[in-house]
Specification:
Elements (H helix, E strand, L loop, with lengths): L4 H5 L4 E4 L2 E4 L8 H6 L7 H23 L5 E5 L9 H15 L3 E4 L5 H11 L4 E6 L13 E5 L2 H10 L3 E4 L4 H15 L8 E4 L1 H16 L6 H4 L2 E4 L2 H17 L4
Parallel strand pairs: 3-4, 3-7, 4-5, 5-6, 7-8, 8-9
Antiparallel strand pairs: 1-2
Helix pairs in contact: 4-5, 4-10
Bound molecules: ligand LYK5OOP5.
Ligand LYK5OOP5 binds next to strand 5 and helix 7.
Keywords: Cytokinin biosynthesis, Hydrolase
GO biological process, one term: cytokinin biosynthetic process
EC number: 3.2.2.n1
Length: 258
């Protein structure tokens, strides 16, 4: 496919694979994650997976090296599809600002919607704004409020960074991606894979039904315990969320965890 000169004047659609930027005809139909995880690519297991392991390792090195000097941080999750004037984006911007004012860096997936609003809030309040992007067939690149950005090929490497460098998780309204991030965090805390840290759901109207269902079904049937229910805080109040993070952080660092 060739571009007209008009098309070339516009920023081209691009795909990021770690340090590599691909544009136009160089954008492949599949992502690195798809090739690694999809059993239809089993023909490549013998020839390619050992090399992929080195690429995966290099993503860990890049992430660890770039993020090691971050101040205490909070990972903020939420919909890639919310409009900038939506209530959740307004809440995310206020949250990003309040976290920055409390001295926390804000880490998001670096995408549009709620992620962008949280990055914007943090940047405008003079805080550090981090975006951990992921190669997706429909990605839009890192939002322009990200000050430190890393583009990952592999979802699981990126997820390690969200957990390792955060003192807390805050989850705003979102879809499957957001639910995945919420339940991964809660499971890690529940199974003591990470130090107990706050997992906060923001948006009582949005999340209330899910929390009720967890109580009425999972708790009632013994699939989770009352203690597990306490792993999640539900609020609409930005100040309350930040206060909860600050206090949990103090309690944990008092135990010699920092
Ligand atoms: C859907 C569109 C762009 C997608 N771009 C994304 N960039 C970065 N991170 C993303 C993206 N999409 C999902 N994520 C991650 O999942 C969470 C949001 O997913 P949801 O399904 O929208 O809830 C988010 O926290 C990211 O970490 C074009 O609009």
């Amino acid at each position: 496919m060739t571009d007209s000169s008009d098309d070339r004047a516009r920023p081209p659609h691009e795909r990021h694979r770690g340090a590599v930027t691909l544009r136009r005809d160089s954008i492949p139909p599949s992502t690195a994650d798809e090739k690694l995880l999809d059993s239809h690519h089993r023909g490549e297991w013998k020839t390619k997976d050992a090399w992929r392991a080195l690429r995966i390792l290099s993503e860990f090195v890049e992430g660890f090296d770039t993020l090691a000097d971050l101040p205490p941080a909070v990972s903020v999750f939420g919909s890639a599809r919310s409009g900038p004037d939506s209530p959740e984006c307004e809440m995310a911007a206020a949250l990003g600002a309040a976290l920055a004012e409390a001295g926390y860096a804000v880490i998001t997936g670096g995408g549009p919607g709620v992620m962008e609003a949280a990055n914007r809030g943090a940047t405008e309040a003079g805080g550090m704004s981090v975006g951990l992007g992921i190669e997706l067939p429909f990605e839009q690149g890192l939002n322009s409020w990200v000050d430190i950005g890393i583009d990952f090929r592999y979802f699981f490497v990126r997820k390690t960074m969200f957990v390792k460098y955060a003192q807390a998780f805050v989850v705003l309204p979102g879809g499957f991606g957001t639910l995945d991030e919420l339940f991964e965090a809660v499971t890690l805390v529940q199974t003591h894979k990470v130090t107990r840290f706050p997992v906060i759901l923001m948006g009582t109207e949005y999340w209330g039904g899910l929390v009720d269902w967890i109580k009425q079904r999972l708790l009632a049937e013994g699939k989770v315990s009352q203690d597990d229910m306490e792993l999640i805080m539900l609020t609409d109040d930005v100040e309350e969320a930040v206060q909860y993070i600050v206090e949990a952080d103090k309690a944990l660092s008092g135990n010699g965890n920092r």
